[in-house]
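tool_call: predict_structure(chain=1)
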Amino acid sequence: EISFDKIRQAPLLTSQEAAQVLRVSERTLYALTKPRGTIPKVLVGKRLVRYSPQVLQEWIQNHLSPPGSVA
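tool_result:
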């Protein structure tokens, strides 16, 4: 399991690490990633996908349910 200290120190996360941060499968992460979803990705070269820890943190904050709402 990935530690939050590693998240803060890493410039970019792998798909596996990003999925662990969000507590979802890699398949779900890909579904949430642009252009299908709303999570931006960083493309390194033509095929290597990485995720910014800061962007993931912002995405989490923007998608939190308001207190008292039914999920």
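agent: The chain is about 45% helix and 10% strand. Proceeding to next step.
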